[in-house]
Amino acid sequence: MTPPRHHPSERAIAIRYQQRSAEVKALQRQCYALATLRLRAAVDANGTGTGLAVVSDIDETIIDNTAVMAHAMTLGEHGDGFETWKLWEREGTPHLLPGAADFFRLADRLGVTVFYVSDRFEENKLATIATLSRLGLPQVRADRVLLFGPPKAERRAAVERDHRVVLHLGDTLHDFHGCFAGATLDEQHRLAEDHADRFGEDWIVFPNAAHGTWMEAELRPWEVPKPR
Fold first, then answer.
1. Whose CA is closest to 53, among 97, 4, 104?
2. CA dist., res. 56 & res. 61, Å (int)
3. Residue 93 lies in a domain
4. PANTHER family of this UniProt entry (predicted)?
5. Is the pTM of this model over 0.85?
6. What secondary structure letter does DSSP report for 31?
7. Rounded CA gap, 146 and 121, in Å?
């Protein structure tokens, strides 16, 4: 059975909320405020930042790409328009989410290693490095920017061989654990319950109203009781 497709107006509302609402900006600041507390606590407990790492997604976690979402919508593209997205990776001008600059500069200052783990296209790696560098982010090097190829779980495992990852930042659940990759929506809910103790501790989830497997889910409206 073909899953239901969302109406274009739903896409517009999602992007409008993600791009223009003060609430999303407040939530993003809140995520980085919490991440800062957790980072300082981890460094204090370790006595130093040496050997510790932060693993972060890039898009809608560090940088705002809502401009290309809105552009793709005007073109009538549904879901992921890969060619448009590749062009954005090469030539787009995203900006940092509120709180991102201060958090990553703090991590760098404390001696914590930063890894940028994203499913951006490997063919655009130099462009992604240039974008992150232009935005003033620290530790932007080829060996710290790990893009699409091996699954994210494998890339995170490679980081964990030489570092203790004290924080994972992302906007979708597969940014945190391989069990979420390819899971159905019902499975994701169950797995989120299984890992409930991680959220707000070493897993910090950023809001993204415009992307996710949930976007094709059927709504469950209230069934009004019949008069007796």
1. 104
2. 7
3. yes
4. ACID PHOSPHATASE-LIKE PROTEIN
5. yes
6. H
7. 10
